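Comment thread on ticket #2218

A.B. wrote:
> Attaching the input chain for the structure job we discussed in standup.
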Amino acid sequence: MKFSMTLDYDNILNQLFQVGDDGRIEIGWAKSREAVGTLDGLQESTLFSDYIMEGFVTYYLRLVRTADGCVLEVRLTGTNRDQYIPFTVRDYIKWAGIEAEFFP
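C.D. wrote:
> Ran it. Output below, let me know if you need it in another format.
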């Protein structure tokens, strides 16, 4: 599944993600599992941990440049809460003030 956004890659990257004090990438309440220290790692699939519906989940995110802006790809890992992940990522995008179109 993916979210298509029309802002350019660098704007999306800086509005939606940040690097925490521990070097892990953050989006909303989710954090990357590995401390990478830079946002450059999002060009490859990056594993995130999140707390959704009273339980921990993991999923992969990848931000890809397109001719029209960029696409945030979401890859699920088979948890019992996978169905809630698209709604959570959508909320993180909205909280950042970004409009996105969802493609299942």
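A.B. wrote:
> Thanks. Noting for the ticket: The chain is about 20% helix and 45% strand.
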